[in-house]
């Protein structure tokens, strides 16, 4: 039986390992809070990939050229693959995919709030790749240095693909911005609608983010949300200027002394509202996932029944 | 019929079936019965769009009127499309999607086996390349036919209904017209009669193994060779083509 003293020693060794830069592997001892936090983060991340297929999938059938269609298909396939990869990584912590999906379907588990916004025009596909994947990469390259082995390795691989997604999104925005006046308008409109949600998806500001210290010490969280947000803005604003788009923030200005851009006030009320379920598409997204699950049940049952009948003795 | 026109029509026929079936499969995106199938369907849709694009590029080259593959995909009307009636049929439930896929994959498999020997080098090369992918597609859809047919009562009944409903569109795959005749003489086109025999044998074998009945309906719908489609194609094209048609001349 483990005594309290053993536990303390185990926790000490655990922290020492992390401080040294070693990875924690599935069979290693870990505090329950560490395990739970990772399951929460990884499943939330996996759900985001899967739910994210819906707003993007929305435009595959209407992609304006064969090349764009093929790229979008490949991108959405990547997202589905990331979802699968992340569910598997989360399973190493002792929770199975069925259970995680149940939590998504019942609304108990969250996914990135950004996917509760609709993709209204083709330019939204550009904006998602450029801004949403762009913001996600900022976060994920940091997470790739995290302490949990399976998650950090998943991140390394995912980041490679996300950077392709990011570039194709920006390329769509370039084509539109340098296209006809209608296309340029389409690009600016999408930029206006996706900018703030992308800024917010990186999480509440640091003074409003509980538990951060412990998570940083455990290298579960690698960088504060505000810091990631600053990197994202510093990188994105010049990209917008380069293609002639206007950042929809009248307060945005470059501070020569700090070398960083400074943004105007963020409407956190909107963010928390969307997280609570009041975004334009929350109900639709969860309903779509539930229906896919419900309509697919007989298919999964058929596969199981067939496998059972043809089991090799 | 002039050779060039025949070859152009022939390329369109092959390309369009790939394009339209890719469209149908991509409609499943995010709604599949299990994540692995979402990935599989997108992957197959991607293969189809890649192959369809290559064929349309070749068609554009053969036509020689300066049209691009996108012009051919996005600016032709319902009556100019030459895809098989089978592939434009709506997805329905997963059984219908799988039955449609299996019937078409089996056709493509045997058709492309023969097309590899075409005297047209481009078509032969495209066929050889596509065949590698088609072999996987056929394995995927055959396995699901078996699982559904020999799975539960519900899956058996659903997949049987799907085959019964789709059967009348399978004859159209094998119809031959003057395009075929013109190109057969030059060793470019594939004779569809032996392809049909192989298709029948393989479909019968798999259905039998899946404890399913070959539909007894013998009357077959035709029309795709003349661009006479079912009502479903118009909606599909309206959706697919709307952006380039709304903004003529725009580059994307």
Approximate helicity band of chain A: 55-70%
How many helices of chain B?
A: 10
Q: Which structural class matches the secondary elements of chain B?
A: mainly alpha
> Low-confidence spans of chain A: pLDDT under 50, at least 5 residues?
none
**Beta-strand content estimate of chain A:** under 5%
Sequence of secondary-structure elements of chain A: HHHHHHHHHEEHH
**CATH top level class name of chain B:** Mainly Alpha
| Order of neighbouring strands in the sheet with most strands of chain A | 1-2
Report the sheet with the most strands of chain A, covering strand number, pairing sense and barrel closure.
2 strands, antiparallel
Query: What fold name goes in the CATH topology slot of chain B?
Result: Ferritin
Number of helices of chain A: 11
Summarize the SSE layout with pairings.
The complex is a heterodimer of chains A (313) and B (252).
Chain A: H1 4-20, H2 32-57, H3 66-91, H4 97-105, H5 123-143, H6 149-177, H7 181-200, H8 212-217, H9 225-242, E1 253-255, E2 260-262, H10 268-278, H11 282-309
Helix pairs in contact in A: 2-3, 3-6, 5-6, 5-7, 5-9, 6-7
Chain B: H1 3-26, H2 35-63, H3 69-74, H4 85-88, H5 94-115, H6 121-149, H7 153-166, H8 178-185, H9 192-209, H10 232-246
Helix pairs in contact in B: 1-2, 1-8, 2-6, 5-6, 5-7, 5-9, 6-7
Task: Give a description of the structure.
The complex is a heterodimer of chains A (313) and B (252). Chain A contains eleven helices and two strands; from the N terminus they run αααααααααββαα. Chain A has 313 residues and is mainly alpha-helical. Chain A has one domain: Up-down Bundle (Ferritin), CATH 1.20.1260. In chain A, helix 2 packs antiparallel against helix 3 and helix 5 runs antiparallel to helix 6. Chain B has one domain: Ferritin, core subunit, four-helix bundle (Ferritin), CATH 1.20.1260. Chain B contains ten helices and no strands. In chain B, helix 5 runs antiparallel to helix 6 and helix 5 runs antiparallel to helix 9. Chain B is globular, with a radius of gyration of 18 Å. In chain B, 51% of the residues are buried. Chains A and B meet through helix 2, helix 3, helix 6 and helix 11 of A and helix 2, helix 3, helix 6, helix 7 and helix 10 of B.
């Amino acid at each position: 039986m483990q005594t309290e003293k053993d536990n303390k020693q185990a926790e000490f060794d655990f922290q020492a390992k992390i401080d040294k830069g070693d990875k924690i592997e599935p069979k290693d001892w870990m505090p329950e809070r560490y395990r739970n936090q990772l399951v929460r983060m990884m499943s939330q991340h996996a759900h985001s990939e899967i739910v994210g297929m819906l707003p993007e999938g929305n435009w595959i059938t209407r992609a304006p050229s064969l090349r764009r269609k093929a790229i979008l298909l490949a991108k959405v396939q990547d997202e589905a693959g990331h979802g699968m990869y992340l569910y598997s990584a989360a399973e190493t912590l002792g929770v199975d995919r069925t259970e995680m999906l149940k939590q998504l379907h019942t609304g108990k588990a969250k996914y990135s709030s950004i996917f509760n916004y609709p993709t209204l025009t083709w330019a939204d596909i550009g904006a998602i790749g450029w801004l949403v994947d762009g913001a996600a990469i900022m976060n994920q390259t940091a997470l790739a240095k995290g302490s949990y082995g399976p998650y950090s390795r998943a991140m390394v691989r995912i980041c490679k693909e996300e950077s392709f997604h990011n570039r194709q999104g920006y390329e769509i925005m370039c084509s539109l911005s340098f296209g006809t006046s209608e296309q340029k308008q389409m690009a600016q409109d999408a930029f206006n609608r996706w900018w703030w949600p992308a800024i917010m998806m990186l999480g509440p500001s640091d003074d409003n983010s509980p538990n951060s210290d412990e998570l940083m010490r455990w290298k579960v969280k690698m960088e504060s949300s505000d810091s990631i947000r600053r990197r994202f803005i510093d990188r994105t604003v010049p990209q917008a200027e380069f293609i002639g788009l206007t950042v929809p923030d009248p307060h945005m200005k470059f501070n020569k002394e700090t070398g960083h851009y400074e943004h105007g006030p963020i409407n956190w009320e909107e963010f928390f509202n969307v997280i609570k379920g009041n975004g334009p598409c929350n109900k639709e997204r969860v309903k779509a996932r539930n229906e896919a699950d419900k309509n697919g049940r007989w298919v999964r049952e058929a596969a199981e029944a067939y496998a059972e009948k043809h089991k090799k003795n | 019929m002039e050779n060039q026109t025949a070859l152009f029509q022939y390329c369109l026929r092959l390309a369009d079936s790939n394009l339209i079936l890719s469209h149908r499969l991509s409609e499943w995106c995010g709604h599949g019965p299990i994540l692995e199938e979402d990935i599989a369907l997108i992957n197959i849709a991607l293969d189809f769009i890649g192959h369809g694009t290559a064929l349309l590029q070749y068609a554009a080259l053969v036509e020689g009127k300066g049209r691009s593959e996108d012009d051919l995909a996005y600016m032709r009307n319902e009556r100019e499309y030459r895809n098989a009636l089978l592939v434009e049929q709506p997805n329905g439930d997963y059984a219908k999607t799988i039955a449609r896929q299996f019937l078409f994959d089996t056709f493509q498999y045997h058709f492309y086996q023969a097309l590899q020997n075409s005297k047209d080098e481009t078509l032969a090369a495209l066929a050889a390349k596509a065949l590698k992918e088609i072999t996987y597609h056929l394995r995927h859809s055959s396995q699901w036919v078996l699982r559904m047919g020999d799975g539960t009562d519900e899956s058996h009944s659903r997949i049987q209904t799907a085959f019964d409903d789709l059967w009348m569109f399978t004859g159209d795959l094998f119809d031959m017209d003057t395009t075929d005749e013109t190109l057969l003489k030059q060793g470019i086109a594939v004779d569809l009669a032996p392809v049909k025999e192989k298709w029948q044998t393989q479909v019968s074998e798999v259905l039998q193994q899946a404890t399913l009945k070959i539909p007894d309906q013998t009357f077959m719908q035709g029309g795709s060779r003349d661009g006479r489609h079912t009502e479903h194609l118009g909606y599909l094209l309206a959706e697919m083509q709307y952006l380039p048609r709304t903004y003529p001349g725009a580059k994307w």
